[in-house]
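Dock pyridoxal-5'-phosphate; give full complex structure.
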Amino acid sequence: MASSGIERLIRSDLVDFSGYAARTSPETLEGKVEVPVESIVKLDANENLYGCSPRVNRALATYPDLNIYPDDGQTRLRKLLEGYAGVDAKRIVAGSGSNQLIDLVLRLFINKGDEIINCVPTFAIFRFSTELCGGTLVEVPRDEDFKVNVNAVKAAITEKTKIIFLVNPNNPTGTITPRQGILEILDTGLPVLVDEAYYEFSGETVVPLVSQYENLMVLRTFSKWAGLAGLRVGYGIFPPKIADYLLKIKIPYNVNVAALVAVQESLKDIDYLLERVRAIITERERLFGELQKLKWLKPFPSRANFIFCSVLNGKARELKQKLQDKGILVRYFDQPMLRDCIRISVGKPEHTDTLIKALQEIGG
Ligand SMILES: Cc1ncc(COP(=O)(O)O)c(C=O)c1O
């Protein structure tokens, strides 16, 4: 408990706030792993190991106006996103990563004590942002194949429910929620936030439904398919009135000019980027087959750029550490519903080869 000095004055509900456990940064592993930091294989944060479009690097190297603030109304950016997402710019708001939009949506809707329905296990940022806003997270467990239990979601609704979250495909499990299930949840009339961070890998989207459903909000990102995680740019598609509110409450200039240039250049290079998305999907299926051969792992089918695995010998923590010692980072989970599990991002073929060789050496 905070008790003295300046700490005494902070918000009492944040004293025991646990924060967000971000992945290990390679630079913190200098000298602690068997390979030089530059050779670390990062399969822990669902980044795109092909990188971004070379057009982005070229344009950023010569961009002249870094001394000028971006357009706060995101006019050009929203127009570019209109073309890509196929919805009117008045529905679009961009953020410094889609994570920022999750935070903004919660700030807009949540009063202390309001409830948010979350289909667990899922992306940890929902818990983080809900707690930060003083909301209460109501957790509805997915079934043993990590499918959303639509009836249980509906049964969890109370008069305090403000938003229902759905991640599609889900992180960390890679599971899709079929359109029918999402429609049933939308028919409750409550605001539904569908996070489609991995849309380009799954091909599944509810964006075409936005003009039909006034309660539908969809989030997308450039972090995964376009390889721009480090630049932080995502966007959301909202009912126009909600988009207006979000633009009003966001921090000024929330998307920087480098991110704007990067979006513009990525969208000029869609074929190149989608070719790499297809390569990652092909690699995902090869990795899945290789993981299946290891009898002590149970990989789950995935529609995203990662594969979730149960470690059947109960040694997931040890496995994560042994892989890390060899310079391979994967995400390890040890929470209710995610006991002894790891999540492996899909990289290039050589990353799969390095990982599989390491897994064979470590053994079950
Ligand atoms: C479901 C989901 N939503 C959002 C994000 C974060 O996206 P961004 O980098 O745009 O903040 C991630 C990243 O891992 C994710 O898995």
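Observed: The mean pLDDT is 95.
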